Amino acid sequence: MDSMTFVLFGATGDLAKRKIYPALFNLYLNQKLPKSFSVIGVGREQLSDVELRSRVTDSLYTFSRHLINDKSKKEEFIKKFQYCQLDVTNTEGYKKLLEHVQQNEKDHNIAENRMFYLSVAPEFFEVIALNIKKSGLGSTDGWKRLIIEKPFGHDLKSAQELNEKLSKSFEEEEIYRIDHYLGKPMVQNLEALTFANPVLQSLWNNRFIANVQITASEIVGVEERAGYYDKAGAIRDMVQNHMLQLVMMTSMHLPKQISESGIRNEKRKVMKSLRTLNRDTVGVHVVRGQYGPGEINEKFVPSYREEPGVEASSQTDTFIAARLWIDNSFWDGVPFYIRTGKRMMEKETKIVIEFKNPLKDSYTSEMEKVKPNLLTININPNEGVSLQLNSKNPTNGEMEPIKVDFAASKQDVPEAYELLLFDALYGDSTFFAHWDEVELSWRWVEPILEAFKENRVPLHSYSAGSMGPDAAHQLLEEDGFKWW
Ligand code: BG6
Prior knowledge:
Pathway: Carbohydrate degradation; pentose phosphate pathway; D-ribulose 5-phosphate from D-glucose 6-phosphate (oxidative stage): step 1/3. NADP(+) binds at residues 10-17, 44, 87-88, 150. This protein is α/β, with parallel strands linked by helices. It contains 14 helices and 16 strands. 40% of the residues are buried. The model has no long low-confidence stretch (mean pLDDT 94). 6-O-phosphono-beta-D-glucopyranose binds next to loops.
């Protein structure tokens, strides 16, 4: 891989500490970083290189997947870090950053390949991207790339405005929009699962599939993020990005040639076929909820409205369930159900494919115990795949469901950020959100936002520790299904 400089804006922030430093370190240990590279941490605080390195060390001890058995490796790694203090709104300061980067490139014989990672609040995306261009940081002999994280806007309009501004400094191919769900190993595996298994590939359509269910439930509540979350709600925080990406990844049909553009094209097709809701139909297909008080793991937790920083009359959704229709020849008539929420019974992200059972009506009474075939893709916290079949128990001759299971060993599974950073460093944007996907997702979500704002959809309360409001169960019952 080419030598490069990794310029990290927000070097003293939480994401850097929890995710970015450990991911870089694990890539380093696995020899997946270039021989020659530097990390220039940028932040507002006054820090020395030594102080930054000590913070990086702390983060590795706390969050790294691989244990630090070999201290010399860790020492080698942290020597790659330098710090540059900068107020990101001050255009003048970027000159100093440019000099710093250039001097370092010269000293360490690093080519002018620059990765800019904006691990900062979204209101700074624009000003940083602009100053990268203005200062000359973005004029390189090699490549330049920009990594940003959601939120990409607050609605369709603000997302479009943001994109327009970013595109003044970076080309679309240079922008890597992280959706960390696309970095989860089992999400990346979806493509292989269908591509490498003709059995699944041939079943992946409305002839054989009855419905698809995508769940991302969380135990945590709003935590210390009320300032952001109370304006976003689950619809913006999880549905517009992660959940719709999971819908695209599950339902897309593999292109003849598996390539970045081929996959993007297929994902775009899915979003274009997603049936649009209008304000009046939102309430028929979308359930919104907010957690009340309850008990989780034998511990009492307060309601959302009692959380610090949340208004006592907040109407923000902490739970969404929805029925989606993909109007194309593969999925015509197959409902896709999604649900996500905070303060639910368990932390679980999974995709369940329920297969049709055309023979059901001809079964004798003994066969009534037959359960549907289910393919479950477990994404988080455990990675694995399981297939539910029906079989007679050899000891008592009773028909019962059995599971054919695969579960990955936890320690060997790379973190999402590791996979994503690796891809970005190699210039592979397959598992990043393309602007078209972001824009089409906002378009789909827009009528839901409007309907919520106009109070056209009831806000159901659900007990913390439950699996969401009853209405979310009724949504499937109406179609003769239930959540698995
Ligand atoms: C983030 C959301 O994008 O995803 C959080 O902002 C949420 O609210 C998190 O908790 C869930 O991610 P994961 O990987 O724990 O499922």
